[in-house]
Write a structure and sequence with these properties.
By secondary structure, the chain is α/β, with parallel strands linked by helices. It has helices at about 5-10, 15-30, 50-60, 70-85, 105-110, 130-135, 155-165, 185-195, 225-230, 260-270, 275-285, 290-310, 330-335, 340-355, 380-395, and strands spanning about 35, 95-100, 120-125, 140-145, 170-175, 205, 230-235, 250-255, 325, 355, 360, 375.
Amino acid sequence: MELNVSNRTKNLGTENAFVVLKEVNMLLEKGADIVNFCIGQPDFDTPEHIKQAAIEAINAGKTGYTESAGIPPLREAVAGYFSTSRGIPFSPESVVVANGAKPFIGYTILCVTDFGVGHEVLYPNPGFPIYESQIYAHGAVPVPYMLRERNEYRLDIEELERKVNDQTRLLIVNSPHNPTGGVLRKNDVDAIVEVIKRYPDLWILSDEIYSRMVHDGEFASIASVPEAQERTILMDSMSKTYAMTGWRIGFAANEHLAAPLARWVTNTDSCAGHPNQYAAIAALTGPQETMGQMMASFTKRRDLIVKGLNGIEGIQCKAPGGAFYVWPNVTEACRRVNAKDSEGFRKRLLHDAGVAVLSDIHFGQKIEGEGAHIRFSYATSEANIREGIRRIRKCLA
C-alpha cells in the first residue's frame, strides 16, 4: 500500500552537496579512488578547549532543556561578538540560538511572510539551495536575483531596483557567498540599503556564516549600516569558523524578531543542545589563534587551487574574496570533453577522473550568457588539491 504525502513535501528541495556525497560514498564503498571537493566543511578538528568545555558541561549536569532562545551566558557572548565584529551595539535580548544557522532561514520566512498571499522573497542565484526550498515550502513567492561573473558575483543594484516591490517582504543576502566566494563591500551594502529603505515592510536576512573568512579586504555587514540594523536579521554560526559543523549551534539577532524567532524554536526543536551551547561560549570567548591559523591555511589553499585551475586549458577561475569555494567557468572544458553542460562535466570528472565536485544546477537556475560553472570546496588538504588538479588536467588532455 502506497500512502500519499503532501505536494509541499514532494516538491521540497534539498541540499545537493549531500546527494552527491551519497553518490561519492557509494563509489568509495566499491573501492573507487576519489578526491572529494563537494562538502563545505572545514577539514580541521574542533579546537581542544571547545571540546573540553562541552565535556565539563556534561559532567556538571548541563544536559536538560534550556530556554528556547538559548542560555543567557551564550546570548551575552554572541551579543558581545556581534557588537565587536559589526561595530554596532547588540543586546543579549536580541539574540536567539538554534540548532545551526539553517533553521533561521525558515523561521525568518515564517516570521515576515504569510502563506499564499503573494508575499515575495528575493534570494541569490546561484545560491544556497535551501533558500529557495524554504521559500516554496512556507508559501511565499521565490524571486531570484542573479549573481554574474562580470560583477564579481555581487548583487546588481539595478536588478534589485527592478525586482523589489510592495509585495517584497524579505531580501536574503549572503556574503561571503556560497557557492561563488563573492564578497559584498561597504559601497555594495550602502547601495542595497538605499534601495530597501524605500519599502517599510521589507526585511533583510543577512547570512554571514562566512564572515570570519574574508581573504582580502574587510568584511562589510549590512547590519552595520544604521538605517538597516532595525530591519536586518543577522545570522551566523559556529560551524565554519570554529570547525564545529556537527555541533549544530547557530544564532540570529534582531531586536524586534527575537521573541517570534524564539517561539518558532519552541515549536520545532525546543532548544539547542545544552552542552553544545557551553562549547559555543568557549569558542567565542576563548583563544582565537587556532581560527587565525585555519584561515591562513584556507587562503593558501585558495591561491593554490586558483592557480592550478587556471593552468588547465578550458577552465577559467576567478579568485574568490571569501569562504572556501571556487566557482570556475568550465564552458570550454565541457566542449572539449563533449559534455552538454556542467552536470555532464561533473559526472565525467567523478567517473573518469575520480574527482568529486558540484555543478551549477545544484545552486539554482541557469543564467543566460553565464556559461557553465562547477563548485570546488577547498576545505581539504593541499595534497588533495594538487592531486585533483593533476587528475582534471589529465582528463581534459
